[in-house]
Amino acid sequence: MAPRRIRPIETAVHLNVDGDEVLAERGEPVTVALTAAGRLTLCRSVKYHRPRGAVCFGGRCDGCLMRVDGVASVMTCRLPADDGMRVETQNVVGTAKRDLLAATDWFFPDGMNHHEMFTWNEAINKVMQKVARRIAGIGTLPDDVLAPTPSDEREVDVLVVGGGPAGLHAAAACARAGRSVLLVDEEPKVGGSLRWWPEPMPGIADALAQDALGAGVTLRSRSSVVGVYDPWEDVEGTEAEAPARRVGPPVAVVSGPDGVTRVRPRRTVIATGRHLGASAFEDSDQPGVVDLRAACLLLSHGVLIGERVALVGEGALVDGLEAALAAAGAKTVGPFAEADVLEARGRTSVDGVRVRDGDAERVHDCDAIAVLPPTSAVYELAAQAGVEVAFDGSGYELSVGEAGATAAPDVRAVGWATGAAIETLDAVRAQAEAAAAAIVEETA
Question: What is the dihedral of CA 149, 155, 156, 160, to 10 degrees?
Fold first, then answer.
């Protein structure tokens, strides 16, 4: 069965999706509304035009890219639903569910190298390259010329990247000590895992946000730190004679609805949490296969990913999701160890899962698969800022010492990004406030 809503829409808005009307809750992510309407296939893969849908619902995959109001490749999991939005599938001839270009996958079951097709004739090869460019890609130019993105600069004592409980506690503690603090978070509302945990705690998230605002923190939601770089000063002479000198802390580039800002902080706090990795079983990229966070986030919006959900992974999060799905009226199968999952069954959406059962194999009926794969620190910004990063065999981890100290003297890390097993909110607060205390002392 298709996904469905388990609580009614309170403030309805109307979306035009490929010519059809879809009802949505005002402000919920467009991808959530489409999923609730049973639209799991949102786009097609670039080369073979295989069906694709959202996997993470958190800006980490490309399964939700669509054309919105004439603008291509909009990440609809980050876009709040509003009345009258025009949402279109990209890169198809036909519809998302019936794309004529999917014949590419049928004609080339063993794959193809389009760069070498028809190379025996230069003229024909050039035509082939033009055809390949037209049927591939991720959208066409916007209908209208987009206005330039405004930009500015600002200096702050502390930049906090990530608005989960660790980031909010660290930001509030620094602000209470008289430091100017900017907190940047990608979500529409700060709170991090408190808003999607198998048992969401939005009240605590709201209280932490109000505490930070009351302390004087500037919150910038729906925004991303898209890069961090060091300001260097070029010096005359060869590098051996006069190497370039770093002349200040890392500069962060923040992008969001309000434009682009180059932020020059005296100290940076990395509170970016963790990536959920990819799963490697056959057809794991099929619509209906989502990560655990996505299944939890959908529940927090009152949407059930399926009526019979296969769970993959182990631990408290999987147990919590199993209980939450049962409370919402869904049935579950598993949980199965990721190593035992062999295939997601189905053509355009999941209708079963094939698993290893001892020396045999078994197929379980299901209409969705929720996976908790190995996790990894969200390390990219930290690495750019000079934090040491190491691969531990399954993911990347930050090298973090006491009070969140890192190899970069002006960067500290807190929360799940550190890889620490933080079991309680009190432990999160203690870790974040220890990092804040060190920052306050360093910036006195």
Answer: 40
**Is there a domain that residue 234 lies in?**
yes
Does 339 map to a domain?
A: yes
Give bridge partners of residue 265 from the DSSP assignment: 156
Residues 308 and 365 sit within 8 Å (Cβ to Cβ) = yes
Of 274, 325, 261, nearest to 295 (Cα)? 325
Model confidence pLDDT, tens digit, residues 352-377: 999 999 999 999 999 999 999 888 99
pLDDT at residue 234 greater than cutoff 70: no
Residues 117 and 21 in one domain: yes
Residue pair 432/170 in contact (Cβ under 8 Å)? The answer is yes
Sign of the dihedral through C-alpha 425, 429, 431, 432: positive
What CATH number corresponds to the domain at position 206?
3.50.50.60
Q: What's the CA gap between 271 and 435, in Å, rounded?
A: 11
Residues 127 and 182 occupy one common structural domain: no
Distance CA(196)–CA(218), nearest Å, equals: 23
Q: Which residues contact 28 (CB under 8 A, 6 or more apart)?
A: 80, 81, 301
Helices in 190-314 by DSSP H: which ranges? 202-215, 292-300
Read off φ and ψ for residue 317, nearest 5 degrees: -65, -40
Q: Which two tokens stand for residue 161?
A: 């990247």
Prediction pTM value = 0.89
C-alpha torsion sign, points 36, 38, 43, 47:
positive
The CATH number linked to 63 is 3.10.20.440
Asked, for residue 146, whether it belongs to a domain, the answer is no
Using the predicted structure, report yes or no on whether residue 243 has a pLDDT greater than 60: no
Say what the pLDDT of residue 126 is: 81
Could you report the per-residue pLDDT of 78-96, keeping only the tens digit for each? Answer: 999 999 999 999 888 887 8
pLDDT at res. 249: 74
* Percent of the chain residues topping a pLDDT of 70: 94
Residues 269, 385, single domain; the answer is: yes
Q: Which domain holds residue 335?
A: 278-371
266 lies in the same domain as 389: yes
- 97 plus 245 within the same structural domain: no
Q: List C-alpha distances in Å: 142 to 70, 76, 77.
A: 5, 16, 19
Q: What is the mean pLDDT of the chain?
A: 90
Question: Rounded mean pLDDT of 270-295?
Answer: 92
Mean pLDDT of 325-335: 95
φ, ψ of residue 151 to 5 degrees: the values are -145, 155
